[in-house]
C-alpha cells in the first residue's frame, strides 16, 4: 500500500484563524470559527446513519411504509400526520472520515498531554477534572493564588478576554492553534450545574393488519420504533 500526504487544509485553516484573530465583532469571530468547524463536522458525518423520511397523511401509505424491510422508526405529529423513517438502500461513502478521525486524535494528544503532564504534575490531587469536551477542560483547583499559577503556565495559555489592567492580560498567543483560553476570563466559578440526559417514552403507531397477517406478539396492531 502506498499513499502521499501533505497539509492540504493548512492554508485554509490558518487563513480563517488569522481572520478571527483580527475580527472586530462577535459575528465575525463566530463566522470564521464556523468556517473551520464546518469542514471538520462534514468529515465526521456518519453516512450510514442517514435515513429517508416520508411525511405521511394517509393510513394506507403509513401501512405500506411500516411494512417495508427498510423501515426504521416513526414520529407522530398529529392524528393525521406522521413522519416515517427508512434506512437508505444505496450509500456513497464519499466523505473523508479519516480527516475527522485524525483531528480528534490530535486533539486528544494535546488534551491528555496538558492534563497529565501539566495540571496533574503541578497540582496532584488538588486538581479535579469536572468534565471535558473535544477542545475544553473544566477543573476544580485548590490553590493559594491561581493568577500566580497561570502566570507560571502562560506558555500554554492566552488571556485576551482578561481586563486590560489585569496582570495576566496578553494577546501574544491570541487565537493561535494549540493554546488554551480561560473562557470565564478573570472570573472564577464557585458553583456549577450540570445537565443530564432524560429518558422519554417511545411513541406508538397503531396500524391495522390484514386478517391473514400473523404476528408473534399478542398485540398485532402495535408497531413502535426500535
TrEMBL record:
Xref: InterPro entries: DNA/RNA_pol_sf (IPR043502)
GO biological process: DNA biosynthetic process
Domain of life according to the entry: Eukaryota
Protein name: DNA-directed DNA polymerase
Taxonomic source organism: Araneus ventricosus
